[in-house]
Amino acid sequence: MDWIVAPDPSGRALRDVLPSMLSAMGVEGFTDTIGIPPCRNALVLLVDGLGHELLREHAVDAPFLSSLQTTPPLTAGFPTTTVTSITSLATGRCAGEHGLVGYTFAEPGGGLLHPLSWTARSAPGGADDERSSLIEKWPPEQVQPHTTVLERAVAAGVDVRTAVPPHFEGTGLTRASLRGGRFRGVRELGDLAAELLAAAESPGPTLCYGYHGGVDLLGHVHGPGSVPWRMQLRQVDAFVRMIAEALPPGAVLGVVADHGMVDLDPAEAIDADSDPALSEGVRLLGGEVRVRHVYARAGARGDVLAAWRDTVGPAGAVMTGEQAIDEGYFGPVSAEVAPRIGDVLAIMRTGGVIRSAVEPGESALRGHHGSLTAAEQLVPVLVTGG
């Protein structure tokens, strides 16, 4: 399947960014596989949803960012979804190791964990208002037990700061992925800029991770490439240029993304709920509309695989979880993580989604990601300063 872009195991993936930055800072125990200029302090800004291909296609709206697009892109990992990618970035590990294998995935209680809220539906197929917290029953530190890159940096004497929206503090995803360092809540681009520049000007060594979600949000609502999306991209371009121009000597800024995005018509979708062939033998339907984890009832995996292959057809690739693991999509997979991966995976090509009535908000969106197309998998690594 020539449309599938598999994650890169050679050292040019999103998970390699923070180790490369720390190596460039001279911190022992880390290796630079990306090519970061030597520096005292490093800033990493993640622009949610800014895929390599989107940036290239809309260079006129982002002239400064595009001027930095001089090296090959990174691969985000699989699936190409925010919870997985941010955890890969922060831990330096693939999904098969860190365990956040999708937008939703099977949890030990028999439901689906939704990592953004760290909740599960109280019953399979239950509505969003029936979710219950899993913070106590399945703690984030148990789901993702590995030491993060941030924690390793702190142990090595680095001043680590995390500049993200205030409501991220103490959430399950933050506890699972961004453990380590000092939390710095930021509300808008102004205080995000202030935090990044304060870190850049620190006596060092200082590492600051910052996050901006506006490009992703407007891409989901209006579609990537829409006028609102382009206006947001212009703001981000001006923001990054302002930071770059204010960098003191010895500071490096790296701009990355967690995934790209494709523009899809929600009216053109496979409906997992109304098609009996897609529900027969299915225990849980996880993942998201571009890549589905399908959990089969006991003894039904073969029939589920055949039915989903027949229905999805050339709109995507349908395979067993074992095949996806063998192909290396999740990277090395631990025994603890393997049960979280679907018995069957449906990975969609550019023009398809698999929606579900229990996800009315997600199913109605215009922009989507999660799959292994180049538009979703390839992300930029834009570096300036030093």
UniProtKB/TrEMBL annotation:
InterPro entries: Alkaline_phosphatase_core_sf (IPR017850), Phosphodiest/P_Trfase (IPR002591)
Pfam family, one: Phosphodiest
Superkingdom field: Bacteria
Protein name stated in the entry: Alkaline phosphatase family protein
